[in-house]
């Protein structure tokens, strides 16, 4: 294990931050590190909105479901899949030609690009002694978030990211056994479910310890509850209105 792997293996989500500011230099370094992530065909189909204005963070916290750490963190980054920029350069260089910015493939590329860049940025932030937590809750009222941030057509907020100096220790949440995600030369269904059985025990013990014995629901039961509850079903119509998923 080297220093990079050690940093990655010690990732914790941070939901309480000190009042220390994230400096402009730190923010620039974090986002620049994100830019060096792999990008499909170098399209770089993402944009980052850095939110530091207190009143704007308060509004976003409310739209994200009342998550106080969105308001309290010194810097809140909104990672957006962005095909607007590509559409504009296509119109400039190929006027009158049909283009396929609304395809499912280009939506997928832009979303993956944003996620890859964000994870690079997360590691960079942690290397500077900062903590992060991803906020998928900004998709709950995604139309309102988009309007608040003035996002044009072909741009949508994939997730947010709180950044700041941690004010908590936080425990390492156990992951699925490696055998549950690493398959050799093909998918092994039996291997997958054996790993789930092992993880159910580990995750239940972790939750029991974390909640002082109040909860011990195994991972598979948590996931079943999650999958049978409708969540953000407005996403499809919103994305179509923004110009995505049209081909």
UniProtKB/TrEMBL annotation:
Domain Nitroreductase intervals: 9-164
InterPro entries per record: Flavin_OxRdtase_Frp, Nitroreductase, Nitroreductase-like
Key words of the record: Flavoprotein, FMN, NADP, Oxidoreductase
Top-level lineage group: Bacteria
Presence of the UniProt keyword DNA-binding in the record: no
Leader sequence segment: none
GO MF terms, alphabetically ordered: oxidoreductase activity
Gene3D superfamilies: NADH Oxidase
Similarity field: Belongs to the flavin oxidoreductase frp family.
NCBIfam families in the record: PRK10765.1 (NF008033)
Name assigned to this protein: NADPH-dependent oxidoreductase
